[in-house]
Amino acid sequence: MKKIILSLVFASAFATVSAQTEPVKTVNPEFNQWSVELSGGLNKPMRPMTNGYRTSVASAYVADLGVRYMFNNKFGLKADFGYNSFKEGEDSRSFDTKYYRADLQGVANLGRIMNFETWTNTIGLLGHAGFGLSQLEDENSALKDRMGNFIAGVTGQIKLSDRIALTGDFTTILNAKQDHAFDGQSTIGSRGFGGVLFNGTVGVTVYLGKNDKHADWVTLIDKDVLALTERVDNLETMLIDTDQDGVADYLDLEKNTVSGVMVDSKGRAIDLNNNNVPDELENYLLANYVNKNNQSTATNNELIKSLINGGYVATYFDFDKTNPTTVSTTGIDFILTYLRNNPSASVDIIGHADELGRSAYNDKLSNERAANVKNILTKANIDASRLSVIAAGEDTSVEKDSEGARKLVRKVTFRIK
Asked: How many separate domains does the chain show?
């Protein structure tokens, strides 16, 4: 609900930005649609039966062969062919009849419809129903009773692999226009659905096709829901405020603003006197560098030097990179301005790296970062003799497993001499 509300609130405000994102990519997998089903078991003809004739409570035998095609992971069609044998049970007169049928059925994957995937990926349930033609034959006579039928049942599934599933099925068959009893010994003359037959079988389903999974076992995601989810995720990402200055990252032109200083609508620290020191930070330093007699104990240059040596001025780098990020070159510009205004000053350029990787590699990486900053300053006409490169290597002051914290130590700092 939270994500839906967010999407409705911010949809219009971020319509332009959203339109520039990549098209939604479906995560729906390709799946197989054909299967072959073979099963066998027991049957019980309920009616019509001639007086004095009956089968066992569950009599052998029934065989079934089916071919199924799924349009998607929920609905499909199957054609199946069945064979039943009826023989006398205890306290019954002898008879021997056969029953043949062919049906076309619709199939519903009840497991996917009822979201079985939320608790199991190995148990399934299919429902099936349809119509077909049947024929009852008597082995001891020329009886051939042709009829129509309605068939319906449920099939439980246990997936053994992506290619094979065990099945257990219970099916009811209603015969229409059945003229003879199942035992073949009497004429009924019923024109409606008077014949009732129950089948119970176990079997196997073999899935055909080049893809990994069959439609029975895949979960498809509604594209509209997927699009909405990704859009809301993008909105939430856009609203992240890495430096916590109150300006979301997608609007923030200065993503590493010193914590606590006032910023403008673009996330840039306010610096009205353009000395490259945020006004709030400068005021704090001035307040703490003045004694009780209101006599200054340091000049502005000394304050700026203290600021630089205290690590407040830095330039930052992306992971495993030696060139400064675009938004952090202001730190280099700050040092450049200071060196130009103080021709006798020199500076140590101190490179740092996070803890990921080997220590020897990180030492080299921190040295290359500092050397690149020196190169930028020399190309800005600062004499190389005033610039010293120091490789500080790994900075272990932050948690190694925190990506956000590691960003803060991939940097170059400065020390005025």
From this structure: 3
